[in-house]
Amino acid sequence: MGIAVAYKAKFMLKGTAVTSIIILLILPSLLIFRLSFATSYPESAAPLSLSSPYLVSNCHTCDLVVGREFIIMTEITNREQLERPVVVITQVYDSEDIIESIGIVSGIVNASGAIKVGVSWTPRHPGNYKLKSFAISDFESPTILANPNESKFTVPPADFPYVRIDALYVAPGYNPFEAISNYTIKVGKPYSVTTEITRLKAPNFGNENALKYVLDIEIRDKEGRVIASSWSSGILPVGKSATGGIYWTPTVTGNYTIQSVVLGNFVGTPLGRSQSVDITVIQ
Questions:
Q1: Can you tell me whether residue 43 is helix, strand or coil?
Q2: I need a surface site. Which of 16, 60, 85, 248 has the fewest CB within 10 A?
């Protein structure tokens, strides 16, 4: 099959607005070969053949998730006995068939040889996607060298929870492990609020000991105003648990909500579902 060589994209343009720019830049060439895109070679007559584009990652065991960089690979095989310069255009279409990303790579395919070319892409949203690859000779005098090929795949929603909140409870300040069962406490008395969390094996982040977290606890009054808050942070390996908490002495009677959430950083994406409890403060 010959030597397989991976090339990086010479440029990568993303988004429909930028896609319009690139189309304008290469419009003269598009006018020359756009009719060729509408037709196909008989399968045995095309000078080159393209594999279906596929995704690879530096982390071979990593899951396909939003926010992780992948390389879109396409293999080009030369069916002829002469060397062929080639330009491979790879497009990513979202679920509404809108082009989200375009990658362009140039290379040379040896006679009867094959190469692999790759462009980087990071999915920003879950959903159904289509990859499509084209091969042309160049942009100055473009000739279609292969029938386009495509593949489809789905980026799943975030697989929550990465971290699970096992418990959120209020206890007397003198005994933080004796949870109050009726969710009623008294003005002027000290209490502790504790959250217990566990790291789950979902998804695989490549380095299982590298999951950094911020545990945030907020106490809000009935108008939604934050009257007390606390945070703690750390690194949580798979299967391990941690706790965080806050001490609170209520000064006003009324209804309150205590909410706890685990974040990827101080202003980051939640790593799991939040949990809350309603508390009544009496005299």
A1: coil
A2: 60
